[in-house]
Amino acid sequence: MLRLTPVVRNLIMINVLVFVGSFLAGKLTPLVDVSGCTFSGPVDVITAYLSLYNTHAGCFRPYQLFTYMFMHGGISHIFFNMLTLAFMGPILESYWGVKRFTIFYLITGVGAGLFNIFVDLVFHVGGFGTMVGASGAIYGLLTAFGMLFPNMEIQLLIPPIPIKAKYLVLLLGGLSFMMDPSGNTAHFAHLGGVVFGFFIITAWRKQGN
């Protein structure tokens, strides 16, 4: 049975509440037409204001680099992100403590958004109109877990077998990578989470922490 630590529990609750709120807003309130700055047309008011827009779009606001990581594009999107967070997060939070875990999660999440925007602006290969999801931060956690506990054995529920962390990281990372239902997966945001996670862990190791 998963034992959720305080920050992980709060992150999951916030993500679920925002997801439910967005669903209800889409059913109960008028849709907002944001076709002038995205490729998606009318959306609910929560998605309209909390999603991350590209910087050359008229709807981009700096605060979206933070809020986008609490939005999700569908059931499978939020399920696999939160499942990975529930598996990896408590171990990392217990290892680092509340403050360092929170800092790492937020930096990799914001960094993933910045990385995706940077790649799109410089190399013109990102091609996104809006971006949502905690995947960047989740990939940061996967990177950290793989670097810190590569040979730790974790007992799975289904199937009920032990598996080393480095293999579980590859498995969950692959599922997270493939199961985005939007059809427009922000692969460079995933890569950004890995890059920021790697450099943060490397820097902390050099500091002796």
From TrEMBL:
Keyword entries, A-Z: Hydrolase, Membrane, Protease, Transmembrane, Transmembrane helix
Membrane topology: Multi-pass membrane protein
Protein name (record): Membrane associated serine protease, rhomboid family
Keyword Manganese in record: no
InterPro entries: Peptidase_S54_rhomboid_dom, Rhomboid-like_sf
Gene Ontology BP term (one): proteolysis
Membrane-spanning residues: 7-25, 70-89, 101-119, 125-149, 161-179, 185-204
GO molecular function: serine-type endopeptidase activity
